[in-house]
């Protein structure tokens, strides 16, 4: 059993405009999410505030280039951490977090996203209406040559490469910490599994984190 909080980084591939629209509706809370508390907050941290604006921006970024039938047109990155990271004294207390911890984590997470997906971001949303705070980031996989190519981004690499990404996210979260719990990445665990976000299934059976 691990007592040190663990970083959570999940990556999802969206292969159609409709899947992107469904993810944007889920992340913006313009559709019903069964596990979400409607009395709590969802905040758009960056990018577009409505699902249709997300779609429009994605289409602008992709432009007129031809899209393969199996192409990934967008990605959904989910960032979070173990409950004990946000509420060290009471990790079992569903829906609670320490405000100082939340502010530091949110800043570190948005900075990490800016570094890794930057100008390709469509929308970044902070969800505080489920069990544990988490961030969804929708983005378009446009490479340095301006081509739509998920495979050529760092998120489209090997399992080993993705575990290093989670380690880098854990390191970024730790940079803002002082007398707060440290956080570990994937390579520090004896076994690991990269779990796709619900968006890869068009959120047909979306469940909260």
Describe the protein.
A hairpin with a 6-residue loop joins β4 (121-127) and β5 (134-139). The protein contains five helices and five strands. The chain is 30% helix and 17% strand. Strands 1-3-5-4-2 form a five-stranded antiparallel sheet, sandwiched between helices. The longest helix is centred in the middle third of the chain and has 18 residues, at 99-116. It has 209 residues and is α+β, with helices and mostly antiparallel strands.
Indicate the structural class: alpha+beta
On the 0-100 scale, what is the average pLDDT?
83
Strand order of the largest sheet: 1-3-5-4-2
Oligomer: single chain
Number of separate helices? 5
Order of helices and strands: EHEHEHHEEH
Shape: globular
Please estimate the helix content. 25-40%
The unreliable regions are 186-209
User: Separation of termini?
Assistant: 20 Å
For the largest beta-sheet, the strand count, sense and barrel status come to: 5 strands, antiparallel
Rounded Rg: 17 Å
Beta-strand residue fraction: 15-25%
- Give the beta-strand count: 5
Gist of the model:
It contains 5 helices and 5 strands; from the N terminus they run βαβαβααββα.
Brief descriptors of the model:
209 residues, alpha+beta, 5-stranded antiparallel sheet, 5 helices, globular
Architecture blueprint of SSEs:
Elements: E1 7-14, H1 17-28, E2 42-47, H2 51-62, E3 74-81, H3 83-86, H4 99-116, E4 121-127, E5 134-139, H5 159-175
Antiparallel strand pairs: 1-3, 2-4, 3-5, 4-5
Helix pairs in contact: 1-2, 4-5
